[in-house]
From TrEMBL:
<dbReference type="GO" id="GO:0071949">
    <property type="term" value="F:FAD binding"/>
</dbReference>
<dbReference type="Pfam" id="PF08031">
    <property type="entry name" value="BBE"/>
</dbReference>
<dbReference type="InterPro" id="IPR006094">
    <property type="entry name" value="Oxid_FAD_bind_N"/>
</dbReference>
<keyword id="KW-0285">Flavoprotein</keyword>
<comment type="similarity">
    <text>Belongs to the oxygen-dependent FAD-linked oxidoreductase family.</text>
</comment>
<feature type="domain" description="FAD-binding PCMH-type">
    <location>
        <begin position="38"/>
        <end position="209"/>
    </location>
</feature>
<keyword id="KW-0560">Oxidoreductase</keyword>
<protein>
    <submittedName>
        <fullName>Xylooligosaccharide oxidase</fullName>
    </submittedName>
</protein>
<dbReference type="InterPro" id="IPR016169">
    <property type="entry name" value="FAD-bd_PCMH_sub2"/>
</dbReference>
<keyword id="KW-0274">FAD</keyword>
<dbReference type="InterPro" id="IPR016167">
    <property type="entry name" value="FAD-bd_PCMH_sub1"/>
</dbReference>
<dbReference type="GO" id="GO:0016491">
    <property type="term" value="F:oxidoreductase activity"/>
</dbReference>
<dbReference type="InterPro" id="IPR012951">
    <property type="entry name" value="BBE"/>
</dbReference>
<dbReference type="InterPro" id="IPR050416">
    <property type="entry name" value="FAD-linked_Oxidoreductase"/>
</dbReference>
<dbReference type="Pfam" id="PF01565">
    <property type="entry name" value="FAD_binding_4"/>
</dbReference>
<dbReference type="InterPro" id="IPR016166">
    <property type="entry name" value="FAD-bd_PCMH"/>
</dbReference>
<dbReference type="InterPro" id="IPR036318">
    <property type="entry name" value="FAD-bd_PCMH-like_sf"/>
</dbReference>
Length: 470
């Protein structure tokens, strides 16, 4: 059903403090802006609540009028899952408060906050939790899909540190989900959370993080690729829970050509960090910004390359350490050749994560909905361009690269100990992966939880769980 002026009047009359934007109204165009231009859709109405009661009202109104529903937190979805063509967008951006309980060491965050707010408010109290490595990412999206961060080696995934969530369900009811209240919902939220409701606030376990950390950027020229890969392989072979790294294949920002960028993190002293990364530092990087910096600053290091605007696509990849340097060289060469041939893709990159997975793997696979807890590592094929006529072409090419990584993983990971789930939901665009490849052995239980909390599949934008029709 389409939205009418009369139905908008009904909605406005029921809301309390929420702002409402409709086509032509002041603020409407700005409300459509997303991190990626590929995520922009023309909503029929945008509701920006400040309290959970207005979320309840908006959800009930949309269902009464058979209106499509999307929920926007940080707006980082490259596939438009936080947007709606002609429907209702519940934009949580005005619900961005962060509250700290220093005595209990917890951080409570409203659903529209970004990790920037969490990092900064937490830092003011000497605390931090496991959060996003790009700080303008929304808290909600990252959490509901599992959430990796620089602190994952020590404390696990973001969901492993989630204590409670306040959720507006499809029927409009407001519930608290935790280990003791609605435990099935709490289980499902942790790894498949897009499927069950609108989370108005999260409470996380936090940790002392008042001391600076050793972190920064190293850059190397292409001939050193194999040496860099070997050093990173060595770091995973002798893991340290306080350390992490990202290896990025990209064009130099000044246009001087391809380069290998390594973001390094060590939660310790400068001496400890230098010792841990001695192998990489010994390769004499052409850029070295390593220093003792506040933890909150680490999550800003990627911001210059992760700006708003342009068209973007994510294709998630997995790899089984150790990386084969010859395979990586082939991928690097092919990727850079494509960027040279297609200058509009020059801001694209391949990002490989190097995280100590031991803490993550301590949690049983069925303890949360997240179905991938093993030694495989994540990566992203990050595409960025401006020409909308090339959308399908660029996405198809990225899938070709993705397929190469999948084939490499298949050859090395299948048959090994551990459960193999070849896709991380937060790095998978709708259509890139079949549902069993995301939810794995937890799919059956997820179908039961979905049927209980969202039987009409109202929340259907991000890898919806198929309802069991038996």
């Amino acid at each position: 059903m389409s939205i009418t002026a009369a139905s908008i009047d009904i909605l406005r009359s029921r809301l309390t403090t929420a702002i409402v934007h409709v086509p032509g109204s002041e603020g409407y165009q700005q409300s459509l802006v997303r991190w990626s231009d590929t995520g922009v859709k023309r909503a029929g109405v945008v509701v920006q609540p400040m309290i959970a009661e207005d979320i309840q009202t908006a959800l009930q109104w949309a269902q009464e009028h058979a209106i499509d529903i999307a929920v926007k937190g940080g707006g980082h979805s490259t596939a438009g899952t936080s947007s709606s063509d002609g429907g209702l967008v519940i934009d949580l951006s005005r619900m961005n408060q962060v509250m700290v309980d220093s005595a209990q060491k917890t951080i409570t965050v409203q659903g529209g906050a970004t990790w920037k707010e969490v990092d900064e408010v937490g830092a003011a109290h000497g605390l931090a939790t496991v959060g996003g490595t790009v700080n303008h990412t929304g808290v909600g999206g990252l959490t509901l899909g599992a959430g990796y961060g620089w602190l994952s080696g020590q404390y696990g995934l973001t969901i492993d540190n989630l204590l409670t969530a306040t959720v507006v369900l499809a029927d409009g009811s407001l519930v608290t989900a935790s280990a003791t209240e609605h435990p099935d919902l709490f289980w499902g939220l942790r790894g498949a959370g897009y499927n069950f409701g609108v989370v108005s606030d999260f409470t996380y376990q936090a940790y002392d993080k008042s001391s600076p950390v050793y972190s920064g950027i190293l850059a190397f020229p292409p001939p050193q690729l194999e040496s860099v890969v070997e050093q990173l392989n060595g770091l995973l072979a002798e893991p340290d829970s306080r350390a992490g790294a990202m290896c990025i294949f990209a064009q130099a920002p000044d246009g001087s050509g391809p380069m290998i960028i390594v973001i390094c993190f060590y939660d310790g002293t400068q001496q400890e960090g230098q010792q841990h990364f001695a192998g990489l530092l010994g390769l004499e990087p052409i850029l070295n910004t390593m220093d003792m910096i506040p933890y909150a600053m680490v999550n800003t290091l990627q911001n210059p390359q992760a700006t708003y605007g342009d068209r973007k696509s994510f294709k998630g990849i997995f790899y089984q350490p150790p990386l084969d340097p010859h395979f990586v060289r082939t991928v690097f060469t092919d990727f850079m050749a494509k960027l040279q041939h297609e200058p509009d893709l020059m801001a694209s990159a391949i990002i490989l994560e190097f995280i100590d997975m031991r803490k993550i793997c301590e949690v049983p696979l069925t303890a949360t909905a997240f179905a991938s807890r093993n030694t495989t590592q994540n990566g992203i094929i990050y595409m960025r361009w401006t020409d909308s006529s090339k959308d399908l072409e660029h996405r198809a090419w990225a899938r070709e690269i993705q397929a190469k990584w999948t084939a490499e993983l298949d050859a090395r990971a299948r048959g090994q100990d551990g459960d193999y789930v070849p896709q991380y939901i937060n790095y998978a665009e709708p259509g890139d992966s079949v549902v069993p490849n995301i939810y794995g052995e937890n799919l059956g239980r997820l179908q039961t939880v979905k049927a209980q909390y969202d039987p009409k599949n109202i929340f259907n934008k991000m890898h919806p769980i198929p309802l069991d029709t038996k």
